[in-house]
């Protein structure tokens, strides 16, 4: 395998050889300037976002298949050391790729799979990205794992830090629902409630990341490593399909990082010769109440104007998405599209997925299935092509969204005659 | 491999050859009388409970390891057809066996693993037993999958039936918490609320099972098949330890079926030569507020007197456990014990597991860890022996149990100085 780089950037002092596996440098996605591997996320030249660059060795299918049943089977393709599986982590990933035959029939498509990330340790795809961020933090000598969050990310950071035995700090708006606070606080994280909205929390987190030493804000100063974790969704889809790529993939979009990294993951598999080269159309899904990238896409813009979120799909409610321009690039380049659905459609599609496949998704899953149905109806998704959509989280975390839409079919006294009266009319 | 039976009991008319794989008959656990494989659960002679008997062929580790990453890799050891993996199911099992080093240090034991069944499709071990019951229902031509339940079982039945495309009926007390109703109703099951307590619901379910044709009440008339699903916990533990048995296992006890089937599973692995023969001590865990088997154990009785449950561990709150006598037999025969902990201890141990290993268990997990700690303190569990305990469900389903025990460490305004003031005193 030839190097992807002409020159290697030396790692920072104090970092062990191989700390980032086959990663060799950070590179600015805007201007292409290289930086060393470190706790950096913005280009020194142009303030553009940094991402991880590699010099991959030869990697075989057999090597991957003989690895652990977690994202660490793909360690050679991630910025993690070769001995990563020996460290305590939540070992996320290798979730089910569900052959969704009932849903395919319901939607009128030939072949459809659901990549069901509700099976991760804290029941969302965030376990993947946090596990890689945790490794970077450890290798860089950072000793506090932190994040601003309103839900899934807080759960994942608190759980991963507990398991790894390092301190975590999770910052949330003080008016957050009690149940989301419990589901993070139970891990004994240092949960700090902030009297303010999510934007206030986020701003404070960035200030702390800039001022304090030793802090790894997973989605701020170790974001380039964190984001690489999402590539494992692409790797698993390909491996679980028998080492081949699907024709089209529908991905929920918040910051947009997951979508761009799935595209990057497919490209790396092709470059490494692990799958046959073929085009994969990438589609994005947003809720209408927070669809800044859809608005830019439809206006033909390359940049994304921020919006104020107002949707039940709170895990996708990022009004100023960091990867917005890159999402636009990927969907345009691959022949995909980004579209949105309203909150009522989100709820209907949570129920549709549950009823057809026995998978209870959080609101983001309802967004993604809803957009899949819309793109089929509007002719953007090919019903004869092989399609995968991502379910990124778990319905148990967003029960309120469906609470007023589902319930008992009847209430009866505990008598056999009462049952038979109901059953005969119900099944008539 | 020699047959375990002298004679085979012919399958009922209309059931295809191989419908139950290597299972050959049902046998009464009380009097030993054989019955054919069918929708039977009580002995015709003595009304004793029936269980599945087999004539196993040779089964190899390699054969199992090359199977699907679900309970179906153990299909030859279950009452399911050889082509079971071609049917739509939720494909549960093969959940993580977590090497719990932090918890081991906290408890002062040498080696400890958590078998974490919160990773199943509906986040409890019930997915295992329901998947096997669903197969039996299909092979027997039953077309309604049903259960009385107050939680995990309802979720598992509704999801499995949705995925399989068959009708389901879930019966719950009408005063059940709204969130538990939602988490089942979302699968579009026929959820029937019964104006009565759980005993009333259970009684009505048994009456329907006796009167109506075509109904498979998973935990009533197809219970012998259903219960076999729990053996897969034992199979997975052994395989994940590298095809060997642990020294001692701690198991949550409701009906007691899971505990007896884990013991049966280990015995079958030994008989088949898949693991080396060695004794495994089996320990049971109940909540003090529903500990009828503990009471019988401590009184030296062989039968269990029913109690009225009063505990936050609702998934273990069966006051009249069907497998009570068999649990007593297993724990006495293997040199184990059954013990209980109070509700305050349950909550403390939910937090202890979360804080140490990043695993958020439902109340049953708190019971099991609490009893593990108690048995260590009282000298019944050997701290130098290899120990596994079962986490059977997910903390997201029992948030109320910990709601008043965990929360933010502080609430501050969104200013850096407010943060540093807190942080300096907090870390001083």
From TrEMBL, chains A, B:
<dbReference type="GO" id="GO:0004794">
    <property type="term" value="F:threonine deaminase activity"/>
</dbReference>
<dbReference type="GO" id="GO:0009097">
    <property type="term" value="P:isoleucine biosynthetic process"/>
</dbReference>
<dbReference type="GO" id="GO:0006567">
    <property type="term" value="P:L-threonine catabolic process"/>
</dbReference>
<protein>
    <recommendedName>
        <fullName>Threonine synthase</fullName>
        <ecNumber>4.2.3.1</ecNumber>
    </recommendedName>
</protein>
<dbReference type="GO" id="GO:0009088">
    <property type="term" value="P:threonine biosynthetic process"/>
</dbReference>
<dbReference type="InterPro" id="IPR050147">
    <property type="entry name" value="Ser/Thr_Dehydratase"/>
</dbReference>
<keyword id="KW-0456">Lyase</keyword>
<keyword id="KW-0663">Pyridoxal phosphate</keyword>
<feature type="domain" description="Tryptophan synthase beta chain-like PALP">
    <location>
        <begin position="91"/>
        <end position="393"/>
    </location>
</feature>
<dbReference type="GO" id="GO:0004795">
    <property type="term" value="F:threonine synthase activity"/>
</dbReference>
<dbReference type="GO" id="GO:0003941">
    <property type="term" value="F:L-serine ammonia-lyase activity"/>
</dbReference>
<comment type="similarity">
    <text>Belongs to the threonine synthase family.</text>
</comment>
<feature type="modified residue" description="N6-(pyridoxal phosphate)lysine">
    <location>
        <position position="126"/>
    </location>
</feature>
<dbReference type="InterPro" id="IPR001926">
    <property type="entry name" value="TrpB-like_PALP"/>
</dbReference>
<dbReference type="Pfam" id="PF00291">
    <property type="entry name" value="PALP"/>
</dbReference>
<dbReference type="GO" id="GO:0006565">
    <property type="term" value="P:L-serine catabolic process"/>
</dbReference>
<dbReference type="InterPro" id="IPR004450">
    <property type="entry name" value="Thr_synthase-like"/>
</dbReference>
<dbReference type="InterPro" id="IPR036052">
    <property type="entry name" value="TrpB-like_PALP_sf"/>
</dbReference>
């Amino acid at each position: 395998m030839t190097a992807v780089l002409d020159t290697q950037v030396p790692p920072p002092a104090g970092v062990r050889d191989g700390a980032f596996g086959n990663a060799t440098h950070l590179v600015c996605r805007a201007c292409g300037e290289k930086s060393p591997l470190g706790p950096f996320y913005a280009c020194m030249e142009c303030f553009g976002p940094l991402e991880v660059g590699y010099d991959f060795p030869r990697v075989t299918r057999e090597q991957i298949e003989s690895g652990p049943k977690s994202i660490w089977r793909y360690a050679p393709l991630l910025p993690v050391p070769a001995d990563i599986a020996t460290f305590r982590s939540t070992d996320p990933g290798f979730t089910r790729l569900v052959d969704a035959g009932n849903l395919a029939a319901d939607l009128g498509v030939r072949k459809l799979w659901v990549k069901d990330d509700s099976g991760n340790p804290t029941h969302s795809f965030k376990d993947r990205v946090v596990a890689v961020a945790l490794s970077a933090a450890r290798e860089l000598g950072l000793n506090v794992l932190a994040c601003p969050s309103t839900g899934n990310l807080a759960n994942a950071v608190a759980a991963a830090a507990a398991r790894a035995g390092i301190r975590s700090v999770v910052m949330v708006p003080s008016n957050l629902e009690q149940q989301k606070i419990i589901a993070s606080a139970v891990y004994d994280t240092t949960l700090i409630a902030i009297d303010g909205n999510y934007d206030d929390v986020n701003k404070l987190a960035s200030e702390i990341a800039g001022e304090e030493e030793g802090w790894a804000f997973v989605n701020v100063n170790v974001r380039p490593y964190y984001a690489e974790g999402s590539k494992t969704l692409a790797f698993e889809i390909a491996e679980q399909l028998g080492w081949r790529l699907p024709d089209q993939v529908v991905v929920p979009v918040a910051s947009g990082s997951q979508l761009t990294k799935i595209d990057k993951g497919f490209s790396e598999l092709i470059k490494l010769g692990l799958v046959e080269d073929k085009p994969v159309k990438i589609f994005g899904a947003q809720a209408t109440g927070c669809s800044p990238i859809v608005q830019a896409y439809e206006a033909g813009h390359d940049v994304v104007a921020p919006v104020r979120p107002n949707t039940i799909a709170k895990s996708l409610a990022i009004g100023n998405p960091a990867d917005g321009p890159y999402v636009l690039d990927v969907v345009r380049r691959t022949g995909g599209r980004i579209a949105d659905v309203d909150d009522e459609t989100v709820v209907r599609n949570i129920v549709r997925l549950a009823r057809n496949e026995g998978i209870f998704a959080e609101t983001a899953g309802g967004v993604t299935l809803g957009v899949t149905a819309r793109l089929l109806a509007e002719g953007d998704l090919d019903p004869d092509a092989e399609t995968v959509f991502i379910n990124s989280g778990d319905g148990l975390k967003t029960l309120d969204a469906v609470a007023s839409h589902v319930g008992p079919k009847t209430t009866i006294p505990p008598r056999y005659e009462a049952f038979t009266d109901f059953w005969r009319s119900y099944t008539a």
